[in-house]
Amino acid sequence: MGVKTKDEYIESIRALKPTAYMFGEQLTNVLDNPRLRAGIEATAATYEVANIEKYKKFVVTTSPLINEPVSRFTLPPSSIEDLVARVKMNRHLGNYVGTCHQRCTGLDCLSALSIVTYNIDKKYGTDYCGHFTEFLKYVQKNDLAANAGVTDVKGDRSLSPHEQVDKDMYLHIVERRDDGIVVRGAKVHQTGSLSSHEIIVIPTRALGKDDQDYAVAFAIPSDTKGLIHVIGRSTLDMRELDGCDIGNTLYSKYCPTLIFDDVFVPWNRVFMCGETDFAADLVGRFSAFHRQSHGGCKSGKIDCMIGAALTLMDYNGTNKVSHHKQKIIDMIHRAETLYGCCLAASYEGQQQPSGTYYIDTVLANASKLHEGKELSEAIRLMIDVSGGFVADLPSDRDFQNPDVGDLLKKYLKGVDNVPVENRIRMYRLVEKMALESADTISDIHGGGSPEAHRVTIFRETDVESKKKAAKRLAGIES
Amino acid sequence: MGVKTKDEYIESIRALKPTAYMFGEQLTNVLDNPRLRAGIEATAATYEVANIEKYKKFVVTTSPLINEPVSRFTLPPSSIEDLVARVKMNRHLGNYVGTCHQRCTGLDCLSALSIVTYNIDKKYGTDYCGHFTEFLKYVQKNDLAANAGVTDVKGDRSLSPHEQVDKDMYLHIVERRDDGIVVRGAKVHQTGSLSSHEIIVIPTRALGKDDQDYAVAFAIPSDTKGLIHVIGRSTLDMRELDGCDIGNTLYSKYCPTLIFDDVFVPWNRVFMCGETDFAADLVGRFSAFHRQSHGGCKSGKIDCMIGAALTLMDYNGTNKVSHHKQKIIDMIHRAETLYGCCLAASYEGQQQPSGTYYIDTVLANASKLHEGKELSEAIRLMIDVSGGFVADLPSDRDFQNPDVGDLLKKYLKGVDNVPVENRIRMYRLVEKMALESADTISDIHGGGSPEAHRVTIFRETDVESKKKAAKRLAGIES
Amino acid sequence: MGVKTKDEYIESIRALKPTAYMFGEQLTNVLDNPRLRAGIEATAATYEVANIEKYKKFVVTTSPLINEPVSRFTLPPSSIEDLVARVKMNRHLGNYVGTCHQRCTGLDCLSALSIVTYNIDKKYGTDYCGHFTEFLKYVQKNDLAANAGVTDVKGDRSLSPHEQVDKDMYLHIVERRDDGIVVRGAKVHQTGSLSSHEIIVIPTRALGKDDQDYAVAFAIPSDTKGLIHVIGRSTLDMRELDGCDIGNTLYSKYCPTLIFDDVFVPWNRVFMCGETDFAADLVGRFSAFHRQSHGGCKSGKIDCMIGAALTLMDYNGTNKVSHHKQKIIDMIHRAETLYGCCLAASYEGQQQPSGTYYIDTVLANASKLHEGKELSEAIRLMIDVSGGFVADLPSDRDFQNPDVGDLLKKYLKGVDNVPVENRIRMYRLVEKMALESADTISDIHGGGSPEAHRVTIFRETDVESKKKAAKRLAGIES
Amino acid sequence: MGVKTKDEYIESIRALKPTAYMFGEQLTNVLDNPRLRAGIEATAATYEVANIEKYKKFVVTTSPLINEPVSRFTLPPSSIEDLVARVKMNRHLGNYVGTCHQRCTGLDCLSALSIVTYNIDKKYGTDYCGHFTEFLKYVQKNDLAANAGVTDVKGDRSLSPHEQVDKDMYLHIVERRDDGIVVRGAKVHQTGSLSSHEIIVIPTRALGKDDQDYAVAFAIPSDTKGLIHVIGRSTLDMRELDGCDIGNTLYSKYCPTLIFDDVFVPWNRVFMCGETDFAADLVGRFSAFHRQSHGGCKSGKIDCMIGAALTLMDYNGTNKVSHHKQKIIDMIHRAETLYGCCLAASYEGQQQPSGTYYIDTVLANASKLHEGKELSEAIRLMIDVSGGFVADLPSDRDFQNPDVGDLLKKYLKGVDNVPVENRIRMYRLVEKMALESADTISDIHGGGSPEAHRVTIFRETDVESKKKAAKRLAGIES
Q1: Chain B contacts of C91, Cβ < 8 Å?
Q2: What span, in angstroms and rounded, lies between the C-alpha atoms of D190 and D151?
């Protein structure tokens, strides 16, 4: 067992039989569907790099739990070094795949649960931590990919879960049985749910005492009965299905809606069941870890965008243009800001009672807040530098058409020594990185909306000490 | 004759037989192709509103040239009132179609030519203005839509036209004949070329004395022999082709690459032929007019985005959330900034020697510079307010699927009194307005890249008088 | 009579005997106090330019009320042309004085009162408009400068006027007599109160029915008994008092706190007295006019800042540096944005029932919202371009010191052909424009705080029509 | 000796007899001049906190050079822990003094010299490192404060040092003697030169082979013969001299111009002499360290600004206002961004051949680039939240005036339970932090101008690897 190879991972995904729908049809073969495969390949890259020398040190380490080499994607951080390695691993991977590798949410859930189940047990004498630890060993030993089922559909956002007209708008327990629980609801934006072996579910928000049935956390295989993956639309989904005009030739992303249609969860897979007072803590920890993950992978994605913009400057004959260079610097500055803040969040992490290391939340949220605003700005800059063919580029099929193909190739040529095909490919990549909705929307909403980051920053900042310092200088208090 | 109805316009487009390719295939019926039809409908809206009372006053006026009622889209501005009406007409239309109506570039070309052909004739004793005036009468009498062939493919951007390895990288004259000229080259991002009756071509940049063959302007029907329209990819092109998951149910945009494969132009349709010293003036005037056009229609598009975001606040139960309201204000502020600057540019316009009114270029460029940066910010704000389903929304076909359709409708419900279908439709519209590449890329590159606006602003500003004022106050000069 | 000359204005100010304190001392001669004189000179410039050919057309016009030539600073706008001329006059003056000329608030009050007194009379059958019109004739005939007493001290901002512990925190009527009223309170940030002949008072906020005594508007001479002007500190106040190291050698600004210590106002000078339902309208109209005023004068001030930055580029040998030029463009862009939006607000103005023309409030507030953010950005850019001597420049007295004067002059030299004195003077001007608190704070708080502009923008925008447009496109409503 | 107490430091400064001029007069007692004393107190705070338990761990450590406890302000970083401690020490101190403590530039020079003298010796077989190490021991043993003489006056910035008309525009060697060298020139913006025992001089820019005499580095006591300190103007300098209306009641900042009027430097104090090829390295290292210093102290200053704004919200009755809270979050976000990036720069530091640890320069410059833009934004937000009395607040002397003092105190009251004096004091502190030029200008120009940071970021970034990643994904290269 131990750390899987890419091929082992692919075969393990092939072995799953999930219920999945896309564009009105049920899918019989998830793995070989070109659109989903591009997403699964992105997760596969997390296995691949574990075996590439350059990246290995960031990805592979020894788990103190099972005393065996594991992928860091299965390891709740047990040291500052682990926290830092997560960021660097994610930056390398973001650059390597140019999109989302889809494996961080699972790790972020494992990390949060490793802290909170311990805390719940301390207070209530439950054994969630025991359940969780067994599950974690299983994940580590089999190098599994997991998905985080966090975001509920929410119905009317002005109402709390138990106040909703339809009580299923937040996932909840509909039956408690001897052998386990039955849950109902739906989780949305389930990045990589079909690239994952396991689906981990946690609450999406703080809960009140009347929301008891909604305070539930657990893990189940992604092909569990009653679990339905519905892959929605993204802007460029048909390109992969058509096998044509694909910008990122290797990887992509998809994010199903996941319906839990009365799904059974055995007790040993239940990690929270009714403890409403820990719901905010659990989702808060997850979100903070997830914001740190973004700081790594998104700076890696900007790296890739910088590379594409610079390459098009080479191809277009604009690599001496000073305002283009200024825009490249603006892009680098944004990448380093995300990276710097979340690296600092990691170095400044602290050990929790359960032993897991937790990041500095203010710095992690500072990073994510930049992402929400600056990634769209980085995209705008990339488009500005690259030129207008981010839209309207004729199809590869037009380039192959006997009537107009040669004419198009003639006219799409940039500088003399660069094959026109390369210029076309690079424009396609820019289009993908700029306009693939599965990616760009999560820059804004992933890990909670910007307002959530802001609220967290304020709540976690010691404002009283700042007032005190000001009063001392003003001569009001000493 | 006179101002066409929408139906008359549609039929006039049906009568054309352009050569067009899309995704590797030649098209036999442009008008009924769903993707192109949505774009043609947007142009048709410019005819439709001419007959709607509320909008009529902005669109219909009397041409001093033919002394008949005409659409302002065929009228080079002959008064300040005309300049202002353009902006208001474009704002209304931007809001009405929620995308680009594609008819402004033609008007902007007509406006620029009405000034510059006169100036060329003054200097060189040519009769371009005569040719142009006859053409303009024809356009006005038949209420034709025209397209602006401005942006050349440009090859190696560090070289001027005549320095290119392939001399065809900028459209140029390859033969001068008794009855006319033959031209070769390609113009890209030809918004609405198939919604237009006429294609007007002007140079794309300043030219030197060795670029004489590139100093050419003319107009030809959009189905002229040798003219090839290649419709390229845009992010959401397949939605219209599939007839499914279309966000804007009425309108869209497309921008072909237009190849001039040795096209003949009769002399009476030639408006510039070798006068390199007027190339910069011609493209500069066009660009300034076009930046004013954008200030109108894009503020109208933001209006539409504000409406969509507010509607989703109603549907999601977030219409009381204060930070959402702040973001709406930020969006309004951006719309009004574009609008205010280009309205001022119009009110401050001045009559030119030919009689045409020209805008204040500094203010018009100030507006466009905001557009290039702030429209992507307005989109980001709309996405932030709307929520995550801007991506990943299941397909309409999933909603119709007997297995999962009802489950999806159950879970996609927002507030109680709004049909789930409406919420879904509004998310699709937001997706279209946020992520349709044909629109969003032109926010940045349309009317020239941001750097072009900046250079213009500096060149057109009287900096010496500002220095003088500072020196007086500093006591250096009186 | 008629339009005063600068000298006549100065003498008319000398004739006033206001009660004024500064830095703990009562002043016996306001006019010849160097600090106040610099401010009075700025207002005097509004009289001076009325007699300079280049500016005359913007400043002098004929009043329809008295059928005589008047300064526009005494004229509520009676046409679109008047509204536009205000903006241009203010831009010219902002550039001419490089600071605040202090005469716009009076005009903005006159303009607001000319609309609202009419409306009150219509509803309540009062004769405020009659009182006001007589006052206005007097102002016009004598070309008086007026000051706007708007901002109350406000005490605890979470409480309304009548809820305050000390009822005097908002100016109010303490006695109603046969011959007039007695008022008590204090108005702060009274720009130019000692440069003004008259003080016009209006409420600072919306009032409820229990705030009746606070609904009061009136005008009194600036040297009325009981009126106390306390000139506060500004950052560079001692420079003028010391007569040394003054950046703007001609003009400055000051803004006293004005205490109304039981001041009597005769009935014919009372323009509102108890009509709480019109308080919001009155202050709202004033604010909207004032935000338009700012859009003019602050763009003129940025012009001056651009001139200073460009001059220092010449003096420092950096006038070829491309990133400096980019920053100059950024500054121009900001000036034109303020100007464009408030010019548009003027052109789009509409006549009110009283006959006065009123601006488009959304566009005026859009302009002011930019000012609040972008003026500090323009200052930052000016500092960046100018270099570090905006701070720390040795004193003129050091340059005159026999020991070190020559050494300093040697070392402060820039490019060879520019006298070192000029470079020093220009740095001082930049320091003044960047760091004079009397100016820079009003960029943010003048005409109400940024949040006030935002709230106004939202309130005055027709959001329902925007929703309707989005619903039509989404296929929800036709 | 070892770590000095605050009193020992003050007495050691008293013992110096520097030549100093201010406002045209020579100073006989620097220490007791109120304006300079406030600055000296800020440096004294760096000694004070070394003896306060809470801060001690950040400030005091053991020097590996002398094996004794030393202040970190005398210690070139010899570990990652040292680099990180610098940032935290600076943040604490920035918050503690609310201005610049003026002791970082000396440390940054020591740190840079400890790396570069070693590198020069390696190449040229010189013994600068030996000189430097002796000097460093002396500094550490006596816990001395040092100042960095970096910024030359520069004359015509388009010319290199040897091209200047006046060869003294960059400090240079005018004589080489047996016992040492004689130097001439001037260094400007010499923060804390009179709070320092030693002045360390290094070149300000890259030098060419013809600039040999300008490639000079050394250290001399601040009261060396021929060294003239000329204290220039800052915006609020007279407040301290008048002893009135001082915002920061404890600390301030001043930055003299320092003239080297043929100053003798003995050989054992010379650290570079003619090695032009190391000039860029030396100033580059200094600047990078200094940008890291800023990231610490300026985030500490923003902390203080946040505290002041929050306190005024309490005092004004606006502490429940949601848009104020949003602005506070914006300020926190800015502080944490500076801090996060420069903390990351420290954790990612690397050991240099000499043994000293050096920061990650891209991250350090990313931090400084934010400072240059965001500190002025943080100030704007503080002003917005605090309200208009940041300007125009009456003088303390007015509050004491028997005629108007009580009236002013009555009217300046905020919420009921806060003494009016406290509110006034807090407004004065805000004024100081917002508008003291000695501080705010250095936010922009300190450690080199923004363009210098940008150029560094680009130069230090591996752009080729980014291009490579993009090409792989586009399918161009594997």
Answers
A1: none
A2: 8
